Amino acid sequence: MLKSLGWMMALWVACATPARAEDGYDLWLRYRPLPAAQADAVASKATTVVRDEDDETIRLAAAELERGLSGLTGRRIAGGDLGEGAIVIGTARSARIAALRLPLAGLGPEGYLVRSVTVEGRPVTVIAADRPVGVLYGAFRLLRIAQAGQSLDRLAIVERPRLALRVLNHWDNPDRYVERGYAGQSLWDWQKLPGFSDPRYTDYARANASVGINGAVLNNVNASPDMLTPAFLTKVERLATIFRPWGIRVYLSAKFSAPIEIGGLKTADPLDPAVAAWWRAKADEIYARIPDFGGFLVKANSEGQPGPGDYGRSHAEGANMLAAALKPHGGVVMWRAFVYAHDKPEDRAKQAYSEFQPLDGKFADNVIVQVKNGPIDFQPREPFHPLFGAMPRTPLMMEVQITKEYLGFATHLAYLGPMWEEVLRSDTYRPRRGMTVAKVLAQSRLSGMAGVANVGTDRNWSGSQFDQANWYAFGRMAWNPDDRASDIARDWAAMTWGPAVADPVAAMMLQSRQAVVDYMMPLGLHHLFATGHHYGPGPWVDDLARPDWNPVYYHKADRAGIGFDRTRSGSDAVGQYAPALAKRWGDPATVPEDLLLWFHHVPWERRMASGRTLWEELVARYDRGVAEVAAMQGQWAALRGRVDEQRHDEVSQFLTIQRAEAQWWRDACIAYFAEVSGRALPAGVVPPTHPLAWYKAVRTPYAPGNGR
Amino acid sequence: MLKSLGWMMALWVACATPARAEDGYDLWLRYRPLPAAQADAVASKATTVVRDEDDETIRLAAAELERGLSGLTGRRIAGGDLGEGAIVIGTARSARIAALRLPLAGLGPEGYLVRSVTVEGRPVTVIAADRPVGVLYGAFRLLRIAQAGQSLDRLAIVERPRLALRVLNHWDNPDRYVERGYAGQSLWDWQKLPGFSDPRYTDYARANASVGINGAVLNNVNASPDMLTPAFLTKVERLATIFRPWGIRVYLSAKFSAPIEIGGLKTADPLDPAVAAWWRAKADEIYARIPDFGGFLVKANSEGQPGPGDYGRSHAEGANMLAAALKPHGGVVMWRAFVYAHDKPEDRAKQAYSEFQPLDGKFADNVIVQVKNGPIDFQPREPFHPLFGAMPRTPLMMEVQITKEYLGFATHLAYLGPMWEEVLRSDTYRPRRGMTVAKVLAQSRLSGMAGVANVGTDRNWSGSQFDQANWYAFGRMAWNPDDRASDIARDWAAMTWGPAVADPVAAMMLQSRQAVVDYMMPLGLHHLFATGHHYGPGPWVDDLARPDWNPVYYHKADRAGIGFDRTRSGSDAVGQYAPALAKRWGDPATVPEDLLLWFHHVPWERRMASGRTLWEELVARYDRGVAEVAAMQGQWAALRGRVDEQRHDEVSQFLTIQRAEAQWWRDACIAYFAEVSGRALPAGVVPPTHPLAWYKAVRTPYAPGNGR
Lengths: 708, 708
Fold this sequence. Notes:
The structure is a homodimer of 708-residue chains. Chain A is of the alpha/beta class. Chain A is 38% helix and 10% strand. Chain A folds into three domains: 24-159, Chitobiase/beta-hexosaminidase domain 2-like (Chitobiase, domain 2, 2-Layer Sandwich); 165-483, TIM Barrel (Alpha-Beta Barrel), CATH 3.20.20; 518-564 and 601-696, Alpha-glucuronidase, C-terminal domain (Alpha-d-glucuronidase, C-terminal Domain, Alpha-Beta Complex), CATH 3.90.1330. Chains A, B: Keywords: Carbohydrate metabolism, Glycosidase, Hydrolase, Polysaccharide degradation, Signal, Xylan degradation.
């Protein structure tokens, strides 16, 4: 006993050292011991893990169950023979599973079922699938239930993903700089690859698999052609090998002009046979190394990137040429619709639709067009993109930005689930009422969702503890676009902070995105950001080369009013939506106030639903935003002692930064709009801390993530 | 019992998860349980920690002792009352310490003593000092003894640092890019400072304190003037506050032209009263925030940096102007002697001496001139810098490069202790025989040693497990320049890998630096590196703008011979050394073969001590270098199972990379020198894997650390 006490002490000490403090590295896979009663309940349904197949992915599933259930129950749960309370995992290749005659074929390549059954007279839980990766997903699902402290009794779960491509887009450069990254450097240590396989690569793949993400585009859409050279492909091959057993395929962003830059050709014209041949040979070279390579992501003729337009060819002609090279290998082309021409005078919000909608039906069958959630660029609030529903004969995947370029970087707590849910549940009215964006995505033969990754070398992966929730929520919504942001928040909070605090943590999260909208850009305002890095407010900026780079282009505030007239009397961007929506959104009386200034230029004196004038309402929204952050600070302070100290301190400090920056946003915008409107502050409103000139003078040249 | 068993299991599981695996974050402060016998011995001498003073630094010392001794013994060792085996810590402000009448005043501001004594009739160990920081250093010293598994009986240690300034120079930019950094981003997260105090800042300070480092220059010597703006000074202030209790002062690299760039002045002429006034005001501003600010580090008129030379003033005039601004506050100026003019045709190895030696005695008394260990630039082997011993009336500190810009980046195992020891023990013969570089440093009224830091955001701090040893060794040698590299290696290995493997680990380390010299640049060759990033071989490079940027300038190989004639018949750089050395090194017959080609251009047919010709010897050295790496791989493989798996795997993979890159260096250099010499490979030598053209074609544009 003394001996074991000494051993316990040694363990206690080993675990107690600060380097062992919780720092967020474990993400939502913490597996800390549950309260005794819950632990006992879980343990009774998890006496052992039974696996008949030797498949690597199924081995990983078993290992994860043993690791997770051991951690949650505080007991050593390992592989063993069938017995009461066993967890039996596998596919029909396992005789024991096959004998159960489960409807596995109907689950598809990634689906699974988790069911309480009786095997050889013993009550057990079975996790079964048609393919090994389904077993892995099922294992993580069972662990999620246990982590939430819920019962493992009478389970009858059947799941299959609603979308086929669930991918992270990494805007990572070959020098490890991450464009719009706020979580350190790129996870990919190209200098040490392929020689060094950082264990973190495995942890990354495991975290993705735990939420159903099945693809990773490794490099920036503003792509270096060098990524397609043999020197880099050997490195990419190494990562693909590490990710494969976790069900994750690698993709690469392809620079359209690569045939010139690394191929020595004179042109990249997609209709030039030599160009097509070069891409075919390149695809063959890649698949010789990576048989399950996913394909290419392409940003073409956008923000200075080369593309088929340079040769008078259409996006379809460019995409289809690449698609032909990938087709024999089963790869796909993800072609971005995020385009706005350098010259076009047309409202930027209209350009993607104008350029792509006419191409509906012209894309090869292994091309999927990647459309941002909204028509501008990942703003805190945008209406859904008008292309959704408008290209019925073209597969569309939705691109969202997990990294918070426009929502306060890593230090602002902003849970994006509600923002994505808002878009996914939007009714496109195309072809008819009830056809939501989620349905549009799910119904196309090639389906998918892409998220611009927020992960990097920061110890907590995402730059903050709460930004992990956005990575998690993306995976959940890509698996099931109808999943609820509130349910996802509660699950994440229970897994990441503990079931006991899941509700208060989720409550904070659910109000956080509206808070950012309120203190940055309420009532449909957008793109008021400082130039380049987008850190902090710059509503006054009017000196950039292109009109549609300037905030004044977007808010159009003057002495009469504020807002972008996108009705028929203006740019008529609203006309790109289905008639029913165009009618509702085109009328300031019926458009939701949250989108008022997106679609309308409105007089300052206009009466709002609150009874306030627009000017009073605008100021009130800014004040509400700051108040909402203050409220979050209070809610978090109340959790001190109920979560581990190190992570609590980090979040507290970040909330203090957010509070100060919310005030900065509120003050700068109110000072500016008061000046352009020539209006005095409403009675009782606290004036900005500094004069407008002070805010205009703020310079933050080293803010992270700015493209270069 | 069952309950405690369950608890043990929970702990076991919590400790067993991979995220808890050893990743190197703990450095040499791991405090893992010692073997039972050693643990019992330590525990008997560490029953409790007794502290009477409430000083923050002394509290940290007590906490470190409790943490470390608890970890090492597996017992809970905490603060308590005096008893047998207690550890009593403090200064004379503690009545108990004062009563012992120890010679504390003689210890100076940073010295300490650790002594086995009897207090109130009980045998205890006392750690005492004149100042709190000495107590902290003493605590780490006692822990080092315990970590090595050595006895805490009959201790009688009296220590004081031989050098006053023991500083890390961080070549870190405001955007977190680290010039010549191979360990991730800068530790300083300027974007989140001052709002977020990353716990890692404390861990950094603690690690430095544990080896006696007492200063940190936070920013790159190629300095941004923005570092001196209020926006950054508030961030610097925060770091200074965190570092202070650990005995660490912050310094800043100052850009000499800052008065123009951020001060709005027309000139930065050091003799202009407005310029002097601006720097005085800036110093006052800094000290108002940071009362113990260390001072400025300046790189002037070197590699394009501005300096007093731009105004026809001397380095002394520039340094003294800054020194006058710092003087009232007790700050110092560290002025770098690393200069080589853009135009001067003079041998680059001579220029620092030519420019600075005549200034001896002209510097203010709070200026210390920072001289690199050798006359060129941190090459794998250089003779000591001729300025050491040549400026008797000027304080000189030695600058070494901990980060391995020229020794294989993070993936090559190269313990630098022997390199620094070689320089520190070099006899300058000035003013007389026996005056080693170490003595030159230690005797000056302002003394110090600076190391270009190798730490960054990588989890293991230094980019590799073994590079931690170079950080550690720098601290030890800065504290005592006569400390032995072999003793330091054994201490580090015991603390970092465990006492049981200390000898075999130290043995690998001690041969590693010579291995790098052999496979990169044997026999006094230097600067054969590829352009810019210095990653890989480029002995053929001859097309850079400045002659002394080209490897061919340094090796001067031709059909007749190889080497740089620095004798009287050549540049006479050897004439900058004391006559006795100039004579020995100036004669190819008496110069050490390791420096032969540094000082002499020698015919390929020359007979070497081995009996081989120079050409045969050169090839043999390259082969030996590769063989030495292979030997290290074998030694490390033998340690599998004797150290933790994750760190062992990482080192194994890095050694495989090093082996391949050693072969690359060997092959490329032999192929090149065979061509220029027109010589066939000696009989039995394995030819290079590829033809010379292949090596010349290698491009690695994304190699890290390149200045920008």
